[in-house]
Amino acid sequence: MNDDPDFAIVRRCQAGDSADAEAAFRELVERYQDRVFNTAFRVVGNSADASDVAQEVFFTLFRKLGEFQFSSRLFTWIYRITVNLAIDKRRRSSTLPPMLGEGGKEGFSLGEIPDPERDRAETASDAEFIETRVHSAIQKLSPKLRSIVVLRYLEELSYEEIAVVLECSVGTVKSRLNRAHANLEQLLRPAIDTLAGGGAS
Amino acid sequence: VIDPRRFGFVDLDEMAHAWLDGERFAAPAGAPMDIAAPPPDPLVDAEFAAAVARARSLRRVLASLPRVAAPPAVRAYGRSLAALRGPDAVALPPAARLVASLPRRAAPAGFADRVVAGVGAVRIERAEAVRVRAIRPSLTLVLRSALAAALLVAATLTLANREPRAAAGRSASAGARFHFEIASLRPGDRYPAVPGAAFDPILAPMPRRSSPAVGGRATNGSEEDSR
Questions:
Q1: Cβ–Cβ of A58/B77 closer than 8 Å?
Q2: CA nearest B83 in A: which residue?
Q3: Is B216 exposed, middle or buried (0-12, 13-18, 19+ CB in 10 A)?
Q4: pLDDT, position A29
Q5: E strands, A72-198, where?
Q6: Cβ distance of A25 and B81 shorter than 8 Å
Q7: What is the Cα gyration radius of chain A?
Q8: Does the CB of A39 have a partner CB in chain B at under 8 Å?
Q9: Which value, in Å, is the radius of gyration of the alpha carbons in chain B?
Q10: What are the pLDDT digits (tens) for B43-63?
Q11: pTM score, two decimals?
């Protein structure tokens, strides 16, 4: 546990009001900003909400870092904050009307998952087609299953790490992942077969 | 034929994923083939092999989903946050986020820096910060709908109701006022209203229209504010 490379940075952050603490926190943000944003983006489904979540994560980190006890890996703590805030955000956003001015593939709102088949027919390459299709399929999962898929396949965490992040047992991680696999298999199989049968573009 | 339940799995697909995770199974007594056999090729059962192929293709597709990099606003936010220390730091997120979300044309050069610096000086209460953050999506994205406008009014009223419970003193009041002014901006608005005017979150002019946040009830106990 002590060999976590983040611990040295955290200790510098905890040192207090110094230029080095500022530099250390900046280093921490730069180290995790992409991972935090990516995780949030895949859980909440759009970039505007993901930006909010990322902001909230680093703000929480900024406020709570002094209380960090070094009893767990820092990245699992950051992922836990991210997933919890993203799920909360998603839940709250679902009560709002669809957002306006959020064009582009990253910006679709929760109520208007794009039609991958149509997109594909118009402009998408294979990679874009798969990305759109997979992204929308993940959005159809429940928050818990969605989080676990993101952590496992996008962030490449182990079962044990996911269990720490989500504060559940490894067995629970496996059973949830199995449910996610079954759902995704159903949602994505036609697309996978189509691509395997000749390519999309 | 493999019976997944004899190995503790619901179905072959679950078993296939476990296999891809490196799990190896003890062959049950009397099994027609030994799937616990070591590599190179233990997949002698066609049905199980097909399940493994399905699982593998699903994983390949999932893993192909690209990572999305943090946009510039998030990166800038992290840098700004790192530069703040002490209790003033709680003031940054909503205002900095609001500023970052404003259209370029509404934010003159250096505007964000001045706002961030100004917010750091007024010590906005945390409760207010949370409240303002809550109405940000309405400001930037949903404002064009009537429902969103109603939400904004409701959030502003909530902010006004919270105000008397905020810490007493000039700084908290100024923070609330400043927040309200920022939240009142619309695409195309300028703040301060006069281009090039010195930025002072405490002395900055109030919004043009009367509002519950500043006119409905006292924000710091002064007669001036209650009028």
A1: yes
A2: A22
A3: middle
A4: 85
A5: none
A6: yes
A7: 19
A8: no
A9: 29
A10: 557 778 888 888 988 998 888
A11: 0.60
